[in-house]
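Q: What would this complex look like in 3D?
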Amino acid sequence: MSDLPDLQTDEQVDEPEREAHLALEQDVREAVWEQDTRWLSRTLTRLHPADAADLLEQLSTDDFAEAVKLLHGQLPTDIIIELRDEYREEAVDVLPDEAVAAVLEELDSDDVTTILEDLEDDRRERILDELAPEDRASLEQGFAYAEDTAGRLMQREYFAAPEFWTVGHAIDHARENADDLPDEFYEVYVIDPTHRLKGQVPLATLLRTPRDVKLADIMEEVQSNISVDMDQEEAAYQFQKYSLASAPVTDDADRLLGMLTVDDVVDVIQEENTEDLLALSGVNSADGSDTVLDSVKARAPWLAVNLVTAFIASGIISLFEGTIDQIVQLAILMPVVAALGGNAGSQGLAVAVRAIAEREMDGDASRRAIVRETLTGLANGVIFAIGVAAIAGFWFQSVGLALTIGIAMFATFVWAGFSGVIVPLALRRMGADPAVASSVFVLTLTDVMAFFSFLGLATLILL
Amino acid sequence: MSDLPDLQTDEQVDEPEREAHLALEQDVREAVWEQDTRWLSRTLTRLHPADAADLLEQLSTDDFAEAVKLLHGQLPTDIIIELRDEYREEAVDVLPDEAVAAVLEELDSDDVTTILEDLEDDRRERILDELAPEDRASLEQGFAYAEDTAGRLMQREYFAAPEFWTVGHAIDHARENADDLPDEFYEVYVIDPTHRLKGQVPLATLLRTPRDVKLADIMEEVQSNISVDMDQEEAAYQFQKYSLASAPVTDDADRLLGMLTVDDVVDVIQEENTEDLLALSGVNSADGSDTVLDSVKARAPWLAVNLVTAFIASGIISLFEGTIDQIVQLAILMPVVAALGGNAGSQGLAVAVRAIAEREMDGDASRRAIVRETLTGLANGVIFAIGVAAIAGFWFQSVGLALTIGIAMFATFVWAGFSGVIVPLALRRMGADPAVASSVFVLTLTDVMAFFSFLGLATLILL
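A: Here is my prediction, written as structure tokens for the whole assembly.
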């Protein structure tokens, strides 16, 4: 245990529990080193799959791969599916083809699709070839829908019943066909003879209704409207809006094809949030197992863009080389205007990106936001223009310099407020993700304004 | 319709549907202006509460308040609870005390708590006084738990059954007591005579099990472990980890007190994500109905901190006033080093904050991250040092200047990589939110390094 850092991880976990957990982590690590497959297998199956997956994720990548190899066929499928993306991919990489095929046959259809996505094209072909043709066809079905659609995310196992069934009929059917039903579901979908979706009966409603009542009489209208080719982000939005635990997925003719459950949707929400947060800071993607090369690849492109924009700002400054040469204080104060202006722009940008993501920027709201952000820039501009002017004037004992930096600061703040909201709205309008590239644009715009106004005014006022 | 902007809101919505929606929005607006209460009330009740709430949120704040006043007692409770925080607060503000009291009596306990939270202390007292003492006691119960705990978020309505009951017994009980059960639930909680939680039976399991089987024989262990005083963020983490749709909430003695459902948890996840995104950009809070004053209040404090740090950077530059006076090109290139270094630091910071939020930064992982980020800084440092040196050297035709900026750039990148990850980890260790204030620290650290190394080296090499 001595090689574990004592960084505090979570105030909620009490000390003895935490120590027991660290000891278990260390035992797992040692079991891998000592190739104690039996102990490892028994320990992992004793835990909830999510906890077992957590434990394995504490291993270094090499130890993890070693553990998967050791366990081989004995690594429970439940644990594989609970692993974080990068570890699951690693596990699938390390397992032999037959083991992966065996895993696929055990899983619900949405999890099958997840695993198939992890595989290289030719390995996927090879593994699917190992399966009986009818299994193969069924496994590949989810894979036929485009990435990031509801079709990819849904499972094709659900409980559907015709309208004329009674509650008793539905319950009897469930008892007789227990094995064909998905492990978890929260609603019975009511369909007509052509498999069109007519309504849904929440299990809680089914439970409290007498046996002889018809499903048609207790079914609710399905509020969500999720089609197989709908973007998963839009589907997640409907889950949030209607507070759903699960929802039916249909084709264009409203025929029932599958079911989305909230656990998958929560993952989508997390993903989208993470993407926004990273994109705003100029990172394309990131996860816990990234190598240095992954990190460089995810960040260098935006740094390269920033290289260009930084030299544009330099170009602006160089226009005023003569002015700076005469008043060196300008060089000292220049970064203050740029830093504060950039900060104001980033603030407005974060607020706008959040509002767009939460659909608070439709219609009138976007116009109101533009006005509000510009006025906020104006208000903060007044406050910080006075502050900066006072400090600079006092420092360099110059009213002219104070006036110059004050006006420049004010102009930059108003401009920052406006660009912080207009840039993401413009990107959205062009069909681009408003979070991606916004920062670079906004910071360039505020830098240009900061340097141009400060040095330009200095040339006019101070020379 | 002509006064509505044509900003594209969602590619998924087709044009005719979108136009119909805009027309409906306009009709609602006009109904408010014309005080057509009857049409308004009928239109809103016809829609799903979430859709009706959406529609009302399209109104300006004044029109919205007007609409609530018009509808008065006829604004359905379902719609109130679906409104976004700021609109719900507004609605509760506008409604008379008796109307709010009537709303409270209709709601599930978790929604009651939400509304009570919206009220000013003395108004809450006044409204609670209007209720019968026993109602009041029950309504206030949820409010007794601290803010942001599972106790505040949970509802006290759930379905619990003793271990010796059979499936048939549970179903019969649900049918006979249909009205006492919550509208939505996904599990039956199995308790002992002292109300201690023994296990749970998902409704899907209940449904497919024969009537004479005992609940004790089909119940599952409850994987989550959520106590009333647990932080809601920790509860949300358990929902994600164990893919839950609902979970029981217990006291310290493991007695069942309430139930959390995933729709409330999804809101918590969104909130936490939003907080991180805003905090990273130096904004304390934001929502769609913020006034300019709200925005200034949420942002000025961080701008004030930035004002101080910007002048610290200026102070560093002023140390080298003499050098800049002799070589004005330094003033032109200075911001390039600061901008790129700051960008590299922000990238690392965003990655670290995300990893901490997703609990990928425990134990060994944080040490690995520090190494990876520093090496990433090193790698990007080499690439961009060469790039910047080449451009600067070519621009100003000076090998010395190229060398100076190249080395400074490299040092700043390595430093940025290290600070980007160490600052949030240090904040977390001190028990602070790693997203809040991180940006200011990281940018100050990179600015200081950028200016100090570039101007310092220039003094050594070029003078």
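A: To summarize the key features: The domain at 15-153 of chain B is CATH 1.25.60.10 (MgtE N-terminal fold). Chain B has 22 helices and six strands.
Q: Very helpful, thank you.
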